[in-house]
Design brief:
This protein is of the alpha+beta class. Helix content is about 35%, strand content about 30%.
Length: about 170
Amino acid sequence: MLFTKYSTEEINLMLEVGKMKRFSQYDDNQFIQIAKKLPIFQNLKDSDIASIMLNCKFLKFKNNQLIIKDGIVSSEIFYLASGKINILLGERVIKVVEAGNIFGLGSFVTKEPLEVSITSHGSSAVMSFNTNLQVTTESKAYTYFLFYKNISKYLSSKIKSISKSMGYI
């Protein structure tokens, strides 16, 4: 990961979310420890996670603050660390999502514009990051294969959950 300068608020948020006692501006291992908790990084080595994640940021949002606007192509993946978010179709809230969920994956994978907007539902904290998916070696290719496999499993579980809640399965 490339080092990023963080504000005091972002540092405090990372300490809280990662349940860490201290933070160093130059210790990417702290992001890796948080990322390892996400299902899209399962079975990946720390060095692989570090090679994938770029420009990690912790962002805090107030109630109804816009996180993602519909119509954009997102190159970021988002993890809802705390709080809730609203998924809006037009002006209508179609789903409220709780902490622990990943969002923005659809646009990230397909490179198509998002059809929904996302706003905070109360106060929320989000971890966002870009990815480095330049395949330079055979081992990197396998790492990216595992990464996309994990994304596929995660999206599949969400589709099953939605289908079940709608009575389709």
